[in-house]
Design brief:
Distance between the termini: 21 Å
Number of strands: 2
Strand order of the largest sheet: 1-2
Helix content: 25-40%
Number of domains: 1
Bound molecules: iron/sulfur cluster
Structural class: alpha+beta
Order of helices and strands: HHHEEHHHH
Mean pLDDT: 92
Number of helices: 7
Radius of gyration: 17 Å
Largest sheet: 2 strands, antiparallel
Length: about 140
């Protein structure tokens, strides 16, 4: 298990209607971050402030840099993403990733080959990495 490399896959996958926010989060945005609250409509995120329709991409996903890694074999250019509301992003975003199977399904790049052979240990490592952002996952779910 490695740290998040900001590949952006999770934000791209869930930013177009796959996220939700609790009423308390929305209230907080309305009071403290109106520029975030304007992308909420009828309790749903992220919505077009003009039309009220679901956006096809998260408005806060930012391309940080096209990263160039030069290896001996080939040159790979990889885009790195960041969140422009990182400290005030929804809990849904703060909590991701929660489970190993979800990461495998989403192609999360934190997963390493060795994690697939011992998913129990990988889950413990993931919970440790994520301990600043969320409680440990429930092993019964
Ligand atoms: S709010 Fe931030 S973390 Fe959440 S989907 Fe958008 S860019 Fe990603
Ligand atoms: S998919 Fe995984 S590695 Fe990529 S940005 Fe999301 S958490 Fe980080």
């Amino acid at each position: 298990m490695q740290n998040c490399n900001q590949c952006g896959k999770c934000c791209i996958k869930y930013g177009n209607g796959g996220l939700s926010a609790a009423p308390e989060e929305i209230d907080w945005w309305e009071n403290h971050r109106p520029e975030i609250a304007k992308y909420v409509s009828r309790g749903k995120i992220w919505m077009d402030p003009t039309s009220g329709k679901q956006l096809t991409a998260c408005p806060f996903l930012t391309i940080e840099s096209p990263q160039s890694h030069t290896s001996t074999a080939e040159k790979i250019t990889k885009t790195k993403y960041s969140c422009s509301i990182y400290y005030d992003r929804p809990d849904d975003c703060k909590y991701y990733p929660v489970k190993i199977d979800e990461m495998v399904r989403d192609g999360c790049e934190m997963i390493e080959l060795s994690d697939l052979t011992d998913t129990r240990s990988a889950q413990i490592t993931l919970d440790r990495i994520m301990s600043d952002s969320r409680p440990a996952s429930d092993p019964t779910t």
